[in-house]
Amino acid sequence: MPGRKKNNHHHKNKKHQKSHHKERNPEKEQEEDEQEQDQEQESPFRIEHSDIYGRYLVASRQLEAGELLITEEPLAIGPCVSGDPVCLGCYQPVSLDSTQYRCPGCQWPLCRDSCPGIHQPHGHTSEECQLYGERRAVAAGLLTDRTGPAEVRDLYELVMIVRILLLRQRDPEQFAAIERMESHTEERRKNQVLWQHYEQKVVQRLREVWQLEDLQPEQIHQVCGILDVNCFEIGQNGAKARTLYPSAFLLAHDCSPNTAHTDHPESYAIILRTSRRVREREALTLSYAYTLQGTLKRRSFMHEGKLFWCVCQRCSDPRELGSDCSALVCPVCRQGSLRAQEPLNQEGSWGCDKCDHKMLAKDLESRLDRINNDLEAIDVHDIPGLENFLVRYREVLRPNHYLLLSAKYSLCQIYGRIEGYLLPQMSPEDIARKERYCREFLEIIDLLEPGLTRLRGLIMYELHAPVMVLAQMALQTGKISRQEFQRRLKEVVRLLQNSRDILCLEPEGSNEHEMGKAAADALSKMGC
Ligand SMILES: C[S@@+](CC[C@H](N)C(=O)[O-])C[C@H]1O[C@@H](n2cnc3c(N)ncnc32)[C@H](O)[C@@H]1O
């Protein structure tokens, strides 16, 4: 499969070159065309072009859910750009204090001296080590436990850019493949705030402070654009990296996509499959944004980073495909729901469906930002804190609002899993609460990410346990009949089967795959 997909990509590039040299060798051209047609017939997708999407992939035949479309290793990989320091070899979190292991050559923090990513192409290479070693004072020397998150982020941002620019010498073909990706440089140049940010934080720093003067400003800006537009954020079991892949970048975006992807914990290869049935000629899509965000946020995220305004079905629908996950309680009548009147207008107004109250999107956004800050301040393991958040905002946000769903998602995962809240320690009321949150969450994910998607697999696994425990309790206390117990058990089996089928698609060695195996074990213990 990797070969097939890779061919497809290179094949496209050949085609591109050919169009400029058509008269050169007509016989060879014809032979190549035939080969291309053969390959296209075999491949589950082909590349097309539109004025809106640019290049994108379409299904070359009807595809069933779960079909493998692409698996390929990254052309480039680097740490994620967050304020959290990670190992340059394996992208696991590291600390910046004096006890943290550091590379003897360049002093950047690494997880340990036996990190599998040291001197590996997908990790901390000797080339990179030498470059940073010569610039210790302006690179790793700044990374101490007194360095704030913004400075940590700025320093780590440079790593992937430097790696790509080093590829120019080491592997010009790979570099050329990256250079052919969309960078939206001209549109980015028009946005002075964005352009100046990269000029100061990246271009000047690399050329003046790090003294990499042979890097041309235009090329650095182009690489920054390519990274913003095409990067995948990946990582298993706590690792956080960003990657560029040779052909997966071609998929267009949709806020309710028809593919799902995961990545291999060691090779960082992407594994991309259809998540549901896809019709012949339908565009293959993935989501560049986070599912648990409302339309206003997703659209501005895509506009800022990817330079387009999404007009997909979910974005165009004030009720977001029936999920209603952006609706607020009307602050005036307290009865109605406040929704976007023109969801594709970021500055439009939001109106109540029961009274005349209206609100501007920008006022609403700042309100939501404050609520989001409140949520982010709560530790993900803090059950009372999360429960309190749900109570505090139930008069403000509709029950399916994405901020409430985020809190419910955390609760689904920690009830039953942390000390003091393990299933045998939990009251029937708390177990029932876990069940309720799982069901509420699943109902929305079924609308937004239907099919073979990781979130569905995870939540169905979480849901099976409370259903099972409560059914057993109810049978023992005579609250339900044996027949009703059997009916509930059937649901448990269905949940376990679905989560096994989804989570076993995750790569071996990942936590999700382990969960898929646990679901399979539970089924065999039940004799299924
Ligand atoms: C990762 S690239 C995809 C490949 C790109 N189309 C190309 O030709 O190189 C992302 C870019 O594709 C375009 N794109 C992807 N999905 C889109 C969508 N749903 N609507 C409009 N443009 C889209 C935008 O220009 C976006 O910045």
Automatic annotation (TrEMBL):
Segments for region (Disordered): 1-47
Domain SET: 43-289
Biased composition (Acidic residues): 29-41
Cited InterPro entries: SET_dom, SET_dom_sf, SET_SmydA-8
GO cellular component, as recorded: cytoplasm; nucleus
CDD domains: SET_SMYD (cd20071)
Protein name: SET domain-containing protein
Start-end of Basic residues biased regions: 1-23
Gene Ontology MF annotations: N-methyltransferase activity; protein methyltransferase activity; S-adenosylmethionine-dependent methyltransferase activity
Organism (species): Drosophila ananassae (Fruit fly)
Gene (UniProt): Dana\GF20287
